Amino acid sequence: MEKIEREVKILNIDVNALKLLLSQKKISCQEKIIQDVYTFDMPSVDELYLKYVNTLIATNDKRGLEKLVVEIRPCFSKEDLSVIKTVLGTLDILEFIKDPANDFKKLLDEKLIKLIKTINNRFSKWIRLRKSGNLTNITIKKVVNGHGIYQLDAVKEFEIPVPSLEDGEELLANLGYFFARHQVKMRLTYNYKNAEIVIDKWPRLAPYLEIEAPSKEEIEEVVLMLGYKLEDAIVMNTDDVYKAIGIDIYSKEYKDLCFTDEELKEVKEYLS
What we know:
There is one protein chain. The chain is an alpha+beta fold and 272 residues long. The chain has two domains: 2-42 and 127-271, Hypothetical Protein Pfu-838710-001 (Beta Barrel), CATH 2.40.320.10; 45-119, no CATH class. Helices cover 37% and strands 28% of the residues. It has helices at residues 15-24, 45-59, 63-72, 78-88, 93-98, 110-119, 165-174, 216-225, 238-244, 261-271; strands at 2-5, 7-10, 29-41, 124-132, 135-143, 155-162, 178-192, 195-201, 208-212, 256-257. Strands 1, 2, 3, 4, 5, 6, 7, 8, 9 and 10 form a ten-stranded mixed beta sheet that branches. Strand 4 and strand 5 (135-143) form a beta hairpin. Helix 2 runs antiparallel to helix 3 (63-72). The protein is elongated and about 70 Å long.
């Protein structure tokens, strides 16, 4: 089931002090675990667009293109819509492909292709395969605010369980996705009312706190309850946390990112 993800991070935390505070507040740890996280790349928006348009022209099958347009439509600016209308005679690509009398080759117009290529910078979607203890899940996340920036209330996620990592990898490969990178992380999980409180430690990063709850108000309650200021809570994904310290986890150097021996000592202390 698809849901809106509402979570914030608080960076550079003192793990032992936070664990003590949670214990004093009678909030017990529900899970202590090291997770394996595999990220899979997806074809670019323009690659998918060309694939689906050519399928439409060759077979009259519009399902792939319809699904893609629904996903990227929030990214279209007024200028984009003006280009679409100039090329297709309508502001709506979906409306255009509904009419079989239309010349679908117009969808391959150079101006339209150029526009679609710019959407790659405004549409963000990624797939994660994660093993956590005996549980393995595939999670699809996408930013739905139209400009690809990670924000509260702007990320949708869809998660399904799979029997194993091997089954998950095979499923994603058959769907056309390909392995990009592997990371490990330590996670301590706590529950408070409707909120999930987690302490994460990733390789090369200082530990951080993550708070997820159904509403902004519930998140703010937890932030203050734990002694932080509201301005300490930020909305960003882990990729951007790495980027802030000068690490590009998309580079080959970090394709398999594991704990150093020193970090493992630190992790074992947190897990104790």
